[in-house]
Design brief:
Number of strands: 8
Order of helices and strands: EEHEHEHEHEHEHEH
Number of helices: 7
CATH superfamily: Aldolase class I
CATH topology: TIM Barrel
CATH class: Alpha Beta
Family: Belongs to the type-I 3-dehydroquinase family.
Organism: Metallosphaera yellowstonensis MK1
Distance between the termini: 9 Å
Largest sheet: 8 strands, parallel
Strand order of the largest sheet: 7-6-5-4-3-2-1-8
Shape: globular
Function: Involved in the third step of the chorismate pathway, which leads to the biosynthesis of aromatic amino acids. Catalyzes the cis-dehydration of 3-dehydroquinate (DHQ) and introduces the first double bond of the aromatic ring to yield 3-dehydroshikimate.
GO biological process, one term: aromatic amino acid family biosynthetic process
Enzyme class: lyase
């Protein structure tokens, strides 16, 4: 099954939201952590809910601006009540009660690799999530870990490497989603989303 192509859009102001309707990807990730303050309401985002994933990434997991944890939790709860899809860090869920069923739960490993037991526990705990997204840096053994992750039913696999072909390769191994950029890369190894669409349409039409 062809993975979903997600176009990651840095949102520094409300004007950026107008771009959503022009982006021909399966979903658009709204990176609200690019805002210095959360200058948008959940209700405004609800108007885009058929198309978007809302992400307020913590700086310790690759985000840009810090957002107060309690304020972020309340914002996500409001999005949940409005039926808006969002991405929330597993680490954040350990601290705050936020709905995750049918949402994306993410974990980013920049300085170490998790053990298989840690991975299994995370996927078991968040088995009702839409997807568990795991991003890892190119630490020795990372490819073996990502291959293990590809056996999980709802995994989104993100190697944080410069070579974008690695991201494409893992789409063939079962990654549920693959992320590209709209204006500028928001993570290592991203291709423009339109390039990803062309590549995946070609590859999956061959199968």
């Amino acid at each position: 099954m062809r993975p979903l192509v997600v176009a990651s859009l840095p949102v520094s102001g409300k004007d950026d939201l107008r771009l959503v309707s022009e982006i021909e990807a399966d979903l658009v990730e709204l990176r609200l952590d690019y805002m210095k303050t959360l200058d948008v309401t959940p209700m405004e985002l609800a108007n885009l809910k058929e198309k978007v994933i809302v992400t307020i990434r913590d700086p310790e997991e690759g985000g840009i601006h810090d957002v107060d944890g309690s304020a972020k939790a309340e914002f996500l709860r409001e999005l949940a009540s409005l039926g808006v899809l969002y991405d929330v860090e597993a680490r954040f869920l350990h601290k705050f009660q936020v709905p995750y069923v049918g949402k994306i739960v993410s974990a980013h490993y920049f300085t170490r690799l998790p053990s298989r037991e840690e991975v299994d526990n995370m996927f078991r705990r968040y088995r009702e999530a839409l997807s568990v997204k795991v991003a890892v840096s190119p630490i020795p053994g990372y490819r073996e870990l990502l291959a293990y992750l590809s056996l999980k039913d709802n995994a989104t696999i993100m190697p944080m490497v410069d070579n974008p072909l690695e991201r494409v390769a893992f789409t063939l191994l079962g990654s549920k989603m693959v992320y590209g950029y709209v204006k500028e890369p928001t993570a290592k190894g991203q291709l423009h989303y339109s390039t990803l669409v062309r590549i995946l349409d070609f590859l999956f039409n061959l199968r």
